[in-house]
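=== RUN LOG ===
request id: a7f3
mode: sequence -> structure
chains: 1
length: 269
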Amino acid sequence: MKIIHFSDIHTGGQLKSVSGLFDKRIIGTLNYKFRRRRHVHWSRLDRAIEVIKAEKPDVVINTGDITSVSEPAEFEEALHRLKSLTEDHSFDFLNVPGNHDYYIENNSCLESRNKTYDTLNRGKFPLSSFPCRFEKKHTVFIMLDESRPNPGSRSNGYFKPDELEKVKQWISEAGDKKVILVAHYPLKDKLGDNLSHRRSLENGNLLYGLLENGQIDINLCGHIHAAFVRREISGSREVCAGSLTIGGRLNKLEYDEESKTFEHSWIEV
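=== RESULT ===
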């Protein structure tokens, strides 16, 4: 089985809602226009889509932050840019949201987020049903929504403690199948240290314990724009794909039947 994973494409700069002039969205939009935009190259996404189709994967995974300030116009643009992946049924397409996709508490933004992710997930995994479990061949994927609105410049996520028992149950039912967590947040940084307080996942220690002891084989994530891979003593790994449009990397995982493990490599686009 082959998996291709990317993250953080960050469409942005399209503040069309008048209400956005009076909340956090105006700050985020200005930040995108005058700082982040010069680092975002859409040609990398275009090349990545070509590479994905040429690789003929079994599963394609996007770990969130398809927008910058969760503006409805941004979700429309993101859906347009990812349309050819959504409509290609030669592979399964799994999508989980990031913190920028739930930037503020606003009904129109939240409705756009939910509709967009429901479309990207082809109606199979609506956000209202998260956490979700998906099984393919010798792998169980556990999909989480860790996003929530944050005040100021904070970008924290939140893992709901009452979801832990369901995650543990799915792990116990997996048997000898590999367990891959599909979520937005890294549980540690590339050196194995905690993320800064304003960027971390609240209650992430509950999931990290499962990764550290090998109950979760791989955590696929984004959030941090510089891609990295880190291995635990147990052999479990955390693979952060970084930002595709900024860093230009795809994470490729291929299952080796002999060793019964996933081999990791980067694809530069």
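=== NOTES ===
The domain at 2-268 is CATH 3.60.21.10 (Purple Acid Phosphatase; chain A, domain 2).
The chain has a mean pLDDT of 96.
=== END ===
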